[in-house]
Amino acid sequence: MNKKILPGHGSGGKMMNDLIENTIRRIFGGSSVQIDDSAVLKLPHGRIAFTTDTFTVTPIFFPGGDIGRLAVNGTVNDLAVMGAAPVYISCALVLEEGFDTGDLEKILLSMKSEADSAGVSIVTGDTKVVPHGRGDKIYINTSGIGVFERDPERRDIVPGDRILINGTIGDHGMAVMSERNRLASSGALKSDCAHLNHLIKKVTDSFPGAIKFMRDPTRGGVASVLNEITKGRSFGARLFEENIPVRNEVKGVCGMLGIDPLYVANEGKVVIIASKDAAERILDVMKRDDNGLESAIIGEIDEEFPGKAYIETEIGGKRLLPLLIEEQLPRIC
Amino acid sequence: MNKKILPGHGSGGKMMNDLIENTIRRIFGGSSVQIDDSAVLKLPHGRIAFTTDTFTVTPIFFPGGDIGRLAVNGTVNDLAVMGAAPVYISCALVLEEGFDTGDLEKILLSMKSEADSAGVSIVTGDTKVVPHGRGDKIYINTSGIGVFERDPERRDIVPGDRILINGTIGDHGMAVMSERNRLASSGALKSDCAHLNHLIKKVTDSFPGAIKFMRDPTRGGVASVLNEITKGRSFGARLFEENIPVRNEVKGVCGMLGIDPLYVANEGKVVIIASKDAAERILDVMKRDDNGLESAIIGEIDEEFPGKAYIETEIGGKRLLPLLIEEQLPRIC
Q: Which one of 3.90.650.10, 3.40.50.720, 2.80.10.50, 3.10.450.50 gives the CATH number of domain A162-320?
């Protein structure tokens, strides 16, 4: 096989077939599934969740993950936070002419390994090649289908509800930024890229009626998710600064760049709004999952600033967390 | 709204929200569906088809269509040829910084109009922005879900089966190539871009047991589809040159460029393999559909060259139609 992607790899001809057969299908496997065309699938229920995401992260390899791992986990998490069990995903590649096929293989292997661990099947795909200078190595779209194992039961968010997260914030964004800009760091910065469907299932199975809302705080970070929840509502979201888990390394780089970690993308985190009385027990369940060891209750819903998200600092000050106008960290996912 | 796409349009912030609210959601509509996250969907059956395709065609506007129309129809057709009724599609945009938002709107309107006409709902989406020189105006991924209204019933292809197509070949590829390279043409070259789910439903509803195979001959054209069908099999595919509908304008440009129309991409065509005894009646049904007025029986399955596709010319000569090694026409879809 060629060492570099050539325009012919995106044709309908033999080069494309070879790439699909010898690389993509070999890695993703599954004689019963089709990688290059529609897949025929059987679902246990007629009610599904459907999502799509294109990943354009740069660099494509970063501490804690790569674009392939991100592409699988991002879509798995989008389904999981809807309360659905992710089952099938697609993989559509846009390859830049000249891209290293060894790197492609690493990325596909990473996708396969992550999909296996998440329990999803990669069942259909597409491959396009664009000329040099019309892409950036590789962009990956993953779309996903999840099934609902029970009817979605979601009660209204009310004052007093608690805001939980399954660990430290800002790791993904800062790891990618540091790698991209070769910022000096102790090497401790690492993306939190992970699939959360198993953790989420434990929580929703244990507390089906107590979960009011779940969302993965990717682009725009935790602050943007809280803005989304509170926008136009009669309640606000108050965060307790001292409860928010942030690694010192992340704090350091954020401080250096003048960025608030609450706006930095995460790729292995879920923000959960849960009823007050169940919050501590939910926290216990989360902490027993490998992806939730540092879970914390980071805030609560209240009525002090309706429609707003704000943070109460350790010394008692309060600061609004507005939705940012534009992005601080481009191409983080 | 800004006139050009800026990096902030791909952030998790206000600019992205405005783009989604004021442009994408306004055009795609539907208060019951989410455009920027997972959609929760109800399916009538548990058996589905799932497909994905990224469209990187250049130029993005061409005679007979645009990248948006192509993106909807391509995915609708991928589902339809599987025998599924397309119901839901996703829309993931990769926008290049500096892309004209007026053009974006035209493309989204085109997607919406085509989706409405095909009877599919655009239910979930994603928007990423890449820097100038890391994309090419706009790439669109559409993934799609189709449902099976009956259990797929597909009998084996056998010698004697007929090969049908719903009209002229090569129109899409030649229209795009001519537009891209500003080739002199009478202006008669026009993409055949169309959704075929309605035509296909008529055929499969009328002749459920007679259809052996359906495929849309996009990249690689009709010749590549026939290679796919016959590869490693005990039968071959014989085409009758005089029966293959090709517009004179397409013949002309193909001749000039030294390209065989059988290898040129179509975006509104379906190749159908059907049992001999039903072929003429299927042809009649196809001809009564707006997208099948020039339908023809273009060949048959035989055993003369097992595993091969070949063409019998008007003067009785025979020529093999091998799978091409690499692409003749890049970025045609």
A: 3.90.650.10
